[in-house]
Amino acid sequence: MDLLPDREVAVSPREEERALRALLVAPGREHLELPSLSDLTAAATALARGQRRKALLPLASAPTEWALVRRGPKVLVSAYDTLGAPEVHQLDHEIELERLLRGCAHATLEDARYSNETMNRQIAEHLAERALRTPIAPDPEGLVEPVIKRGGVFETPDDDIPLAFGFEATLHPNATATKTGASRADVHALLFDGQLWAYVRGRRLPLGRGPFMLAVQRMVCGVRALVDAWEAGRAANVRLRSGPFAIGLRLTLKEEVALSLQSGRQEVRATELDVPSVALPILRLANDGLRALVTVDRSQAKNLRVQSLRDEVRALRRAVRDHARDDGFVNAEPERVRVATTEIESTKRTAPPAPTTSLRFEERWRVDMGELDAASTWFCGDRLVLASPQHTVAVDRGTGEVLWAREGARTCWMAGTALMRVLPEGELEVCGVQDGEPQSIARLSDPAPGPKVGVVAGDDGLPPLAILADGPSHLVALDLRTGEPRWRFSCGRTQPSLTRAGRLLLVAGEGAVHALDVASGEDLWRFAARGRFTRKPIVIGDTVVALTEGGAPTAYGIDLFTGERRWRERLSGAPVGDPLSAQGLAIVPLARDQLVALDAVDGSARWLGRDPGVATGAALVVDDLLVVNAPGGALGAIELNRGEVVWSVLLADPLADEVPRCLEPVLRGGALFVPAGGVHVIRPSDGAKLGELPTDLVPDRVRVDERGWVYVAEESGHVAAYAPAPQLRMIRGGG
């Protein structure tokens, strides 16, 4: 059967296609690109047969989609973007289904007429023939009455509620939802009609009629930007628009929020709000809108757009509540912990008398590992354990002879006397350092490579445990004898900072500090405060000093055993490094190169001075001095009682010499071994130079043993050992 028009009939080129475009496209939208004729014809045929009630036709050339929805004998035609913030080009343009079916068939035939491909022409003829023979079957659902759903607030809220939203939505049930297990993204489902309003400090503002979920999505995007800035402790200024609706959010460093809502020419503003009072009403509005949609049309539970928005709302609500929660609790039985916790070792280092004469060293051995991770070098008794991506090796510390070797691992670290290795397959080996062989296999839920934050237990009658970060939001305690997990703890969305204090493990993250029982993982107390505890807490005596960032940076003194607050001190700037413990003081590096010393008893500031490099370098407490090794080779000492610099020396050329990866000085035998341009031996009392290693390596990692041997590791893969050289001395009064 030849359905092509008679060759004798005069037909204007693409006349039928122009007629179809005029049918599908609403006035003023003539620029819209149509889907392919074959897709349109197939979709119209399926709608006419009653096989489908909605057809979604994406374009190949742009992130745009057409939706054809059957309503009895008519079809509603919509076109919109499928970007993260969709823009509607036309919505629910109503046409007759019969006209759509015939128009698609004739346009397809016309397109086939101009095709040079025989196969394409025959396919088009079959599609058009099928469409022309298709009768308009009754709509399986008939004219379904829409369902009116209301949510949110309908009357002016109380004075203590600065922001609230309400809506009324018109939704169409879908009784013939597909039973398939597949899920797909359906933007059109979120374009249901309705009206939205807001109450801002008691003033009601209509936010418009139409597909209000587009405005809700923009508000959720604004909340995401607001919460991210809030958690990072920075200011933010966000303004987003969806059609005539616009939302503006401004967050200051004092954590005050200014809100503006605009609908057309109407605008309302509110200031001196906080993040929860703005974010939570918006998230509740989004959640209520999605719940209303899924209640009426169960098939939307599989809509990827609905799932994505719902997951985003849940994650943001959890973030806001975790960051703002103040539901701390104290330990009701502190004596049980106090008895079980041994006396905490002081961090003060008393140096023995330093040598009075210069020191000389000579190289004893050198090995080349190749791509050595300088941080992965450890002293283990009589051997050094070295790790690279290709090999894990133990060498004799006296001769450099290889004692054992294993294949490389994704990452390695030491847990007490056990070597932990994450294999390429994701398994975690617990190895002995004597032979490097695995003693047990552990399994983490997130065996990703990278440094593992954690501590080790196994003394004072505790079982041998390695407490590790398992992914970004969990801690797991692994039994080093079996590799099995003993307990697991959820600590929020960000990786926590850990400090062990005897039997207690202090976990700082987001808005709280937890004290866990190392053996059982029991949460003994929780101290909650506004802000983020991103820095590692320190313990001075029986006081925990913890710092918050964001808004007003604050230092807190917390009772180690009960979790009760002892003091609070506002800081003059944001902390830029972990605090240090020194002679009953908490030394805190602050922004703008400040260094403050807080008394651990009452939190008062003993002194405030210039930071010589604690924030960017490494510091060590020696006697009454805080020795600071800064990048660029600047070494100095601060007198702890007054905060004054008592001596300083320059050990490297800041422009020419490379900066070692680890700047931590090592105190051994009364002398400081300081990595800079080389390795320098310094007398800590006055900064006098006692010697220098004859090395050409960049000292990315320096180790010193009890004999005075110095081991230098460079990330190029070279490791060298240097021993004190014999020296002749004149003894006065000799015969």
Question: Your description of this structure?
Answer:
The chain has 735 residues and is an alpha+beta fold. Among the domains are: 15-133, no CATH class; 147-176 and 184-324, no CATH class. It contains eight helices and 48 strands. The protein starts with 14 loop residues before the first helix and ends in an 11-residue tail after the last strand.
Question: Which terms would index this structure?
Answer:
735 residues; alpha+beta; four-stranded antiparallel beta sheet; 8 helices; 38% strand; elongated; disordered N terminus
In short:
With 735 residues, the chain is of the alpha+beta class. The chain is built from 8 helices and 48 strands.
List the helices and strands and how they pair.
Elements: H1 15-24, H2 37-49, E1 54-58, E2 64-71, E3 74-81, E4 88-96, H3 97-113, H4 118-133, E5 147-152, E6 163-171, E7 193-200, E8 203-209, H5 213-232, E9 236-242, E10 245-251, E11 257-263, E12 266-273, H6 275-296, H7 304-324, H8 334-340, E13 361-368, E14 377-380, E15 383-387, E16 391-396, E17 402-407, E18 411-415, E19 418-422, E20 428-432, E21 438-442, E22 454-457, E23 465-469, E24 474-479, E25 485-490, E26 497-501, E27 504-509, E28 512-517, E29 523-528, E30 538-540, E31 543-548, E32 554-559, E33 565-570, E34 580-582, E35 585-590, E36 594-599, E37 605-610, E38 618-622, E39 625-629, E40 634-639, E41 644-650, E42 666-668, E43 671-675, E44 679-682, E45 689-692, E46 701-704, E47 710-713, E48 718-724
Antiparallel strand pairs: 1-2, 2-3, 3-4, 5-6, 6-7, 7-8, 9-10, 10-11, 11-12, 13-48, 14-15, 15-16, 16-17, 18-19, 19-20, 20-21, 22-23, 23-24, 24-25, 26-27, 27-28, 28-29, 30-31, 31-32, 32-33, 34-35, 35-36, 36-37, 38-39, 39-40, 40-41, 42-43, 43-44, 44-45, 46-47, 47-48
